[in-house]
Amino acid sequence: MSTGTPPPSVEVRTTREGDFDGIIALSRRVYQTPAPWSRDQLASHLRVFPDGQFVAVDGARVVGMAASLIVLWDDYDIADDWRDFTAAGTFTSHDPEHGRTLYGAEVMVDPDRQGQGIGGMLYRARRELTRRLRLRRIRAGARLRGYHRFAKTMTAKEYVDRVAAGDLRDPTLSFQLHHGFTVIAVASGYLRHDPDSLGFAAVIEWKNPDVP
Question: Of 2, 70, 140, 182, which residue is the least packed, with the fewest Cβ within 10 Å?
Fold first, then answer.
């Protein structure tokens, strides 16, 4: 799998209000459905957890984005959906006082810039944040973007097992496994109206080696 070498002009930094239009434009390039992020949601992210929001920029253009919050995992069921974990995308469920888990709500890279290492830069920023805050782990729902092509011949669990074994490649999950994540469960109804995953996601985890 090619991870690419990021162009020297690409920088990853924390998100600013001036990035909102670029993030919304990026999400329209990434998703076939209407842009998933509104200015109100992005503003809420900065209010509740500015350190957890990152953009990759090349000059003035936003070419990647990662959004996260801290949760107390025991407050949730492992099969809960994206809206449950993110408070419908507002991140008002952010709980830095009690939570020890960084929840990865979103990572996206401009389709024209994939394979250049930009996603790796965003994941590295998340790992560094997790270590700096001495959180126990990162968890997220890996949207199974390729599952719709195999849904007639195998279950989502069988698909995930074959991706994890290297027999199949999923555009999202394979990348995350390459960056040190492991699969701990498969959830249905995670993104209910996503035609690519048919709502299925792999629940993935990266453990902070600095924290027992």
Answer: 2
- 94 contacts 72 by C-beta, under 8 angstroms: no
**Ramachandran angles phi, psi of 63, nearest 5°:** -115, 0
- Give tens-digit pLDDT for 41-51: 999 999 999 99
Please state whether 93 falls in left (phi above 0), alpha (psi between -120 and 50) or beta.
alpha
Using DSSP's 3-state secondary structure scheme, residue 158 falls into helix
Give me the phi and psi of 191, to 5 degrees please.
-120, 95
Q: Which among 137, 151, 116, 148 is positioned nearest to 203, based on CA atoms?
A: 137
Name the DSSP class of 35.
P
Q: 68-101, pLDDT tens digit by residue?
A: 999 999 988 877 888 899 999 999 999 999 999 9
Domains of the chain in sequence order: 1-135 (3.40.630.30), 141-212 (no CATH)
CA distance 180 to 49: 24
The stretches of the chain forming alpha helices (DSSP H) are: 20-30, 39-48, 82-86, 118-132, 156-165, 173-178
Question: Which contiguous run of DSSP H or E holds residue 182?
Answer: strand 182-187
Residue 212 and residue 191: Cα distance in Å, rounded? Answer: 32
Name the token pair of 10: 């690409």
pTM: 0.91
